[in-house]
Amino acid sequence: MNFDIDCLRSFLVVADTMSISRAAESVGRSQSTVSQQLAKLETQIGKGLLARRKGRVIELTSEGGKLVQYARQILQLNDEAYASMSDDVLTGFVKLGVPLDFFGRDFTSWLARFKNKHPMVGLEVEANQSENLQKRSARGEFDLAFFKQETGAKLGTVALREQLVWVSGPNFVAGAKESVPLILFPEGCAYRRFAVAALQDHKRPWHLSFVSPSFECLKSAAVEGMGLTVLARALVTPPLRVVRHGMRLPQLPSVELVYSQGRRSNSRVVSELANYLADSLSNAGTMRAAPIMA
Fold first, then answer.
1. Label partner for 2 (CA 20 to 30 A): which of 58, 77, 194, 282?
2. CB of 282 within 8 A of CB of 159?
3. pTM surpassing 0.85?
């Protein structure tokens, strides 16, 4: 019995994303085709690979978990074999800088798929505040850096424009005249800068409640009701909720997520990665469910 490489590739993306629709977009097939590929694998094995509820993938079965490990090895060898015999193989090394909030997106899955497709490419990734990334990119410290800027600042190539929103946990309540407890990334973060500037312009008192470079820590602090934070709207998923601006809070601006490439002799690999991540950001921004409104 021989496994179909295309079926294994689709299955692996489904396993990584827990979504047939997102896997279909990633591999360039229709959802029905991906479903047929999964069914073919399950027929070959004689066991189910995915646990579903109301048509949605919720987890891998024990057999699915086993196959994932082998599928990664099979696809890696397949791609390496193809790359070694191709005159158009993508090779090189990229030092990549990204904002801290990239880890509230599917960034690691995007990188894994890029590496699977281009196994001869080496990556070094650093997460940092946007202001630091922009300054260090201008000094040539990164081959490729993503960072946030004010709309129209023209510091890099625009990948995505996002609206900033006030965000809280499900049970947070703040009085209209109370000092706003803020949950923020450290100094140098564009979200932090815009949040503080908006409150100061609005003459609304505020104080720091929680500061961390970790997106997951900020999310946890907000969920537990330690204060308000500021995020791009696309990053707000339950149990977080958007808090409407108005009498209590000022309107926040939109920001541009941009990227800047360093001056390298091997620019092709940098351009390929930049275009891939920019497309991934744009596609993910249109697929996020609308957040719960407070």
1. 58
2. yes
3. no
Closest to 216 in 3D by CA, of 294, 107, 57, 142: 107
Measured over all CA atoms, what is the biggest interatomic distance in the chain, rounded to whole angstroms?
70
Please report where in the chains the tokens 């100094």 appear, as a residue. 187
Reported CATH class of domain 90-294: alpha beta
Domain range 5-84, its CATH number among 1.10.3720.10, 3.40.50.300, 1.10.10.10, 3.15.10.40: 1.10.10.10
Locate tokens 């808090």: which residue? 243
| Residue 61 token pair | 């079965």
Answer whether 26's CB lies under 8 Å from 114's CB: no
Whose tokens are 């977009």? That residue is: 25
pLDDT the model gives residue 289: 46
Phi, psi of 252 (to 5 degrees): -100, 155
Residue 110 structure tokens: 């995007």
